[in-house]
Amino acid sequence: MIPNPRQLKLLQYVHERNTSALEELATRLGVTVQTVRRDVQRLSEAGVLARYHGGVRLPNSTVENIAHHQRESLHAEGKRRIAEAVARAVPNNCSLLINIGTTTEAIAKALLQHTGLRVITNNINVAAILSRNQNSEVIVAGGVVRPRDHGIVGEATVDFIRQFHVDIALIGISGIEADGSLRDFDYREVKVSQAIISHAQEVWLATDVSKFNRPAMVRVAQLDQIDRLFTDAAPPEPFPNLLLNAHVRCDIAL
After folding, report:
1. Which helix or strand (DSSP H or E) is residue 188 part of?
2. Residue ranges making up the domain that contains 17
């Protein structure tokens, strides 16, 4: 399903809190409990929420991500602010590695006015966006294309990435757990992200606040492998101390 605007607001509210009572959602959205119940039924059938008696929560699946078109709509305003903050920090005339994700796609849009960029990516959507910038160069990794999101993954992709060493890696992630581990769902995508992290002078993580305390099956890296974090709200506990101890600069895009 493609959520309507009210259902997107409902999803965003639950993602910010992990769980919510139906009455609370009805008050928040200014609709009846019956309307919320119908929305929750549809969203749970689509697998993006899990119902319990009197409320709803995130499905907390460690093995499957939300569909790409749904992720594009979720936290869209926060991703836009993050993308603009990243674009302000990226200098002209530098080299970038950019991985898979709707946040990195938003960053690509925000980089369209830059000049002299050399971008290597395993994200066909990023490549399509930045190819409109005639003052920069885009290099697309080889490998297997995932139909669901146009990400390129696999051993051939890893081998391709290993040829480069860039100024900045711009990465998105599916979840950050309370032990400071960055996590994702597809081990093939994780292998590529690990190669991207290890072949950059600096690593910048761009993620909206809903990704904190979100589980995913495969470990990508630890926070101490990141130099800079861009997010759209203050990270919840225990992340402020984790970021401080890992010497990660945190930029909150307001």
Report:
1. helix 187-198
2. 5-60
Domain shared by 97 and 197, yes or no: yes
Identify the burial level of 50 via C-beta atoms within 10 angstroms of its C-beta, where 0-12 means exposed, 13-18 middle and 19 or more buried.
Answer: middle
Distance CA 86, CA 101 (A): 15
Cα(111)–Cα(117) distance, integer angstroms:
9
- DSSP helix/strand/coil, 131: coil
Domain total in the chain: 2
**232 and 148 within one domain:** yes
Encoded tokens for 43: 């969203």
| Domain-located, residue 65 | no
CATH code of residue 54: 1.10.10.10
pLDDT, one tens digit per residue, over 191-221 is: 999 999 999 999 999 999 888 888 788 999 9
C-alpha 228: how far from chain center:
15
Question: Would you say residue 150 has pLDDT above 60?
Answer: yes
Cβ contact 208:189 at 8 Å: no
- Quick one: which H or E segment has residue 120? strand 118-121
